[in-house]
Write a structure and sequence with these properties.
Elements lengths: L1 H14 L2 E3 L2 E3 L5 E3 L8 E5 L3 H10 L3 E8 L2 E6 L10 E6 L2 E6 L16 H4 L3 E9 L4 E5 L7 E6 L1 H14 L6 H9 L1 E5 L10 H4 L11 E8 L2 E8 L2 H7 L5 E2 L2 H15 L11 H6 L6 H8 L5 H5 L6 E7 L5 E8 L9 E2 L2 E2 L4 H20 L9 H4 L7 H15 L12
Parallel strand pairs: 5-11, 11-12, 12-13
Antiparallel strand pairs: 1-2, 2-3, 4-14, 4-15, 5-6, 7-8, 9-10, 9-17, 13-14, 16-17, 18-19
Helix pairs in contact: 10-12
The structure holds iron/sulfur cluster (SF4) (2 copies).
């Protein structure tokens, strides 16, 4: 009950309202519901009150991680307040090109995805797995016992929600990775529906965006119209409802919902790239020997950038270290890439010696074998591998080149599919 009184007092102050039977009436006549009492699926939070959401999360012990400008890019890092968000910034992206520029308004989420993805917080790039200490009788092994950080991810895009769901299948499917699982289960997710498509985005083709459909606690749509700057908040979970009970919010009107719909529709209509995914698995399976792999190999530097920025790539290797006395040893896991020669090293040699075989492995895994392995595509259409490839190799163009060659020649494939599914 005291909590209720506090909430009434809070809303009365914020909205100049009079309280009445659990509802608060705005001077302007709009109803404001106290979400804890009257749970609504949508609410509207003003730009000024967005900070209350951040505070409510911090009060619950979450470490906020969100977009912020650093070294000329929007990256994901620890943030403290709304002021850390990239207000007024947007990005220009194309093959091998990324640039920030000013938008001309004060949008907080007016850019597409940057070089980072959330995987670096759920599946850290470098992680100690265990340490060992020499004893008088042998070695004592000490497994790594991490108290997993409790993250609140702010600004997760729809394609990224799909990427997280994809990695869930990898790390919490047939085998469970305890480090990933502990971090994942604690994470609170604030999604953002995209208000702008990046120059290399193709989530519409991959059916992964731009609207966040599932996998979040709260989803924001930023509405900037005339002088009004608000966020339509979709509340998807009990936890989201609980947090929102501490954030001043108004009821969403039909106009708000329609405005949010327009934002997403407009974004969907402006994708920077497209990919025809029709029969893509079979297309790639029957083209293992396509000459296009030689063409791409002539350009590919095998630098592994595409795999590092990809939100679904999950390969890792282990490294063992010891001190000079041989008394202490550690095993570390670190991200690896199918573009390195060592990655396919087996019994005296690398299986994939050429750039051709490595690029083919990567792209065929993403778009074909991944479907057999996990039941979904390994690509969510975020476009990072295109933007951050130093020589602008474009996965959508590579698929199109193989598809077009079949269309033009009338010949389907260069070889039989290795196995039927
Ligand atoms: S495709 Fe581009 S980013 Fe990927 S390894 Fe080759 S050069 Fe590097
Ligand atoms: S393959 Fe490229 S476009 Fe697809 S999810 Fe990975 S980085 Fe994004």
């Amino acid at each position: 009950m005291p909590e209720l009184v506090r909430l009434f007092a809070f809303f009365a102050k914020k909205c100049q309202v009079s309280a009445k039977k659990g509802r608060v009436w705005l001077a302007a006549g709009r109803i404001v519901k106290i979400l804890k009492m009257d749970r609504s699926r949508h609410a509207v939070v003003s730009r000024a009150d967005l900070s209350r959401l951040f505070e409510a999360l911090k009060e619950r012990g979450y470490h906020l991680v969100g977009p912020t400008v650093r070294e000329g890019a929007v990256v994901y890092d620890q943030i403290e307040t709304v002021d850390d968000l990239p207000a007024g910034w947007t990005d220009q992206q194309d093959g091998g090109m990324y640039r920030l520029k000013k938008r001309g308004d004060a949008a907080l989420f007016g850019y597409a995805v940057g070089p980072h993805s959330w995987k670096k917080f759920l599946f850290p790039p470098r992680q100690r797995i265990f340490s060992a200490r020499r004893t008088e009788t042998g070695f004592e092994i000490k497994p790594e016992t991490e108290d997993a950080p409790k993250y609140a991810f702010i600004g997760v895009r729809s394609c990224e929600l799909h990427a997280i769901a994809t990695q869930d299948k990898v790390f919490m499917g047939q085998f469970t990775d305890p480090i990933y699982q502990a971090r994942r289960e604690k994470a609170f997710i604030v999604a953002v529906n995209c208000g702008q498509a990046g120059g290399t985005c193709f989530c519409v083709s991959m059916n992964t965006g731009p609207r966040a459909q599932a996998g979040f606690d709260l989803a924001l749509t930023e509405l900037l119209e005339n002088d009004r700057h608000v966020f339509l908040v979709e509340i998807a979970t009990e936890l989201g409802t609980e947090v929102m009970a501490h954030v001043p919010a108004c009821d969403a009107t039909r106009d708000d919902l329609e405005a949010a719909e327009r934002v997403v529709r407009q974004t969907a209509a402006h994708m920077g790239r497209t990919m025809d995914t029709n029969g893509i698995k079979e297309l790639l399976y029957r083209n293992y020997e396509h000459p296009r792999w030689d063409n791409v190999a002539d350009r590919c530097l095998t630098c592994a950038n595409c795999t590092m920025v990809c939100p679904t790539c999950f390969c890792s290797t282990v490294e063992d270290t010891t001190d000079l006395q041989g008394d202490h040893a550690e095993r570390w896991r670190r991200w690896d890439s199918c573009f390195t020669t060592e990655f396919s090293y087996i019994g005296g040699g690398a299986v994939r010696k050429t750039a051709r075989s490595r690029y083919r492995q990567w792209m065929t895994h993403k778009l074909a074998t991944w479907i057999d392995q996990f039941g979904t595509s390994g690509c969510v259409g975020c476009g990072r591998c295109i933007t951050w490839c130093p020589v602008a190799i474009d996965i959508t163009e590579e698929v199109k080149a193989i598809r077009d060659s079949e269309r033009h020649s009338g010949v389907k494939g260069t070889q039989e599919a290795p196995y039927e599914k």
